[in-house]
Amino acid sequence: MFPRFQIMLVSSMLLLMVFILLSWNTMDRLNRFSANQQVLESALLKGAGNQLLQRIQDLQTRVLLFSEEHHPQIAKLVQYPDNAALRVAMQQRVKRHFPDYSNFMLADANGFVKFTEQAPPISEHCQNDLLRFSQMSRQHGADHLYPLYTHPHQSQHHINIMSPFLNQRGLKQEGIFLVSFKAHILAQILADYELPGYQLMLLKQDDPGLIEITAKGGRETLQRAHQLDRAEQRSIHQHLQIPGSLWKLVVLSSPALYQNYQQSALLEAALVLGLVLFVTFLIVRIAWLSYRC
């Protein structure tokens, strides 16, 4: 009886040790997978964030240089907005410098629109931007950069980049030059950095759940709710604020990534445990029968 008891005890201890080792190994694999996910998310945020910042700064610089270089023509168009020749000439200049633009406006020094390429009415968001930019330019100087955010629009959402322009003699600030760009100009950067199972988004800083831009474009392209649900917001482990904007960049990973890896790890552990259990059973069975003989 005693040898049989030893066999059962040793077998039980062996199975317990195998179970503990498999449990530890599985938990370690899952923890390392989660850590690697966060490292990957951080790399995606850093790479896409740097590209977004460069694109924003490039657009702001180009708009500023355009307003400085063409301030006599801009000021003249503000003075004579109904002059067809001036309008066509300015449209050609803007198109040549900004192939991806969607609209441009000219406002006086107080922020009131004097000319717009597209037919009125002017959206409330654009008019408010011009008024605030006018106030900030007077308070902080003409070099002040207005933070970007997405403007809702019936067809396509857009962003506005503004710069002050001088009068025809270049002596004082005459008004504001505004260029609108469709959201896809930034969405393409998100698309370039996205990986299967990961989704990059620009969210509004003062409304953290509001989606501004995704890899597909502005909010109007979404085939889902415009707000992240609570579970999605809780799944965001890190974010990156984009300087010169009211956005923060986040990355959402698909829950299926972890779930699939977890299921695979548990299945592998179960198969190993089952194999060890089967081999142990055979050994115990043989030893048991040998002691009976």
TrEMBL record:
Membrane-crossing residue ranges in chain numbering: 6-24, 265-288
Record key words, sorted: Membrane, Transmembrane, Transmembrane helix
Domain of life from the UniProt record: Bacteria
UniProt name for this protein: Double Cache domain-containing protein
Organism: Candidatus Venteria ishoeyi
Lineage, top ranks: Bacteria, Pseudomonadati, Pseudomonadota, Gammaproteobacteria, Thiotrichales
